[in-house]
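User: Here's a structure from my thesis project, written as structure tokens. My advisor, Dr. K., wants to see whether a designed sequence matches the one we expressed. Can you design one independently, without my sequence as a hint?
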């Protein structure tokens, strides 16, 4: 049985089989669970996401020698110690082992936030040690769980020391411009993310130096688009950022926070949420609120890895696979 839990306040209320929101979930054709991470490939400015491990990785489309490949992982929540996953370090370790074992070695890795659960130094230590095991340069943005108590100072000093403003930055790799945005400070009503005037002014200035033909990859923790505002799954001023991105011919926006794979396409802008390595969350609107989606212990890894997604075409339509973390 699978049920929803909102940080303990609604445990046992929602049975998946009986949920009135199942039709909504099924209608969201772009939704799928995955558990290990996505190998992102940009070949000639065309982004493709290939799930790591399993049969689908073997079926991945061929790429040229000039292709740029990187990995995205998200929502490690090191320090979380309740059901459905009292040991998120072990599942993060499994994800890293899959990255190390990938047939095509990626150039680097992105972590899209909630590295820790409570922003504690020991949680950051554990996460950093495991992630470093991939042997890849890793770029981070914080989640709201990483900025508890100190406005992110400990996170930024460890994971994003060389940044502009309050943690945002950009870099270039093989003709692709990457932009890291921070939307977990100064959260708005309902828990919505927020970028703020200063960061948006920086983004406008950063993009002004790039040709509109430059492929862009933007990564952040909370979705820039309103996935489900009633649960705070979106960014209050995300439309202002998207307006700056729309003139570009190829824009890929990557984020975490919702612990599931969703996608939305708006013209040349493709927005993708990522899976967690720690625990799943409910589909938007399925249950009384966000939080760990409780599964039986024997099902956890299967749930995290049970559905994989391959983005094999420019329209972003995902291909689903049944490989799991334990397969």
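Assistant: Designed independently from the structure alone:
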């Amino acid at each position: 049985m699978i049920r929803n839990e909102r940080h303990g306040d609604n445990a046992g209320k929602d049975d998946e089989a009986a949920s009135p929101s199942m039709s909504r979930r099924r209608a969201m054709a772009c939704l799928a669970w995955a558990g290990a991470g996505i190998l992102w490939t940009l070949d000639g400015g065309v982004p493709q996401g290939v799930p790591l491990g399993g049969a689908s990785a073997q079926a991945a489309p061929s790429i040229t020698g000039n292709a740029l490949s990187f990995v995205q992982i998200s929502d490690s929540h090191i320090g979380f110690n309740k059901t459905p996953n009292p040991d998120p370090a072990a599942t993060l370790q499994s994800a890293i082992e899959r990255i190390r074992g990938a047939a095509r070695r990626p150039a680097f890795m992105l972590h899209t936030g909630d590295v820790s659960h409570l922003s504690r130094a020991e949680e950051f230590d554990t996460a950093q040690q495991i992630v470093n095991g991939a042997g890849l340069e890793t770029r981070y943005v914080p989640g709201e769980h990483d900025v508890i108590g100190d406005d992110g100072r400990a996170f930024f000093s460890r994971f994003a020391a060389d940044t502009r403003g309050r943690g945002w930055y950009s870099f270039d790799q093989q003709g692709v411009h990457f932009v890291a945005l921070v939307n977990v400070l100064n959260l708005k009503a309902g828990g919505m993310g927020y970028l703020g005037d200063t960061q948006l002014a920086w983004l406008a200035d950063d993009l002004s130096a790039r040709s509109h033909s430059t492929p862009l990859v933007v990564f952040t923790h909370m979705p820039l688009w309103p996935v489900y505002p009633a649960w705070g799954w979106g960014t209050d001023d995300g439309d202002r950022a998207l307006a700056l991105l729309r003139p570009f011919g190829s824009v890929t926006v990557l984020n975490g926070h919702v612990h599931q794979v969703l996608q939305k396409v708006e013209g040349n802008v493709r927005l993708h949420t990522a899976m967690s390595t720690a625990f799943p969350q409910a589909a938007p609107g399925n249950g009384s609120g966000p939080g760990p989606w409780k599964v039986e212990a024997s099902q956890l890894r299967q749930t995290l890895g049970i559905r994989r997604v391959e983005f094999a075409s420019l329209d972003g339509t995902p291909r689903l696979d049944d490989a799991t973390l334990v397969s």
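When you compare it with your expressed construct, this may help: The CA atoms of residues 306 and 324 lie 5 Å apart.
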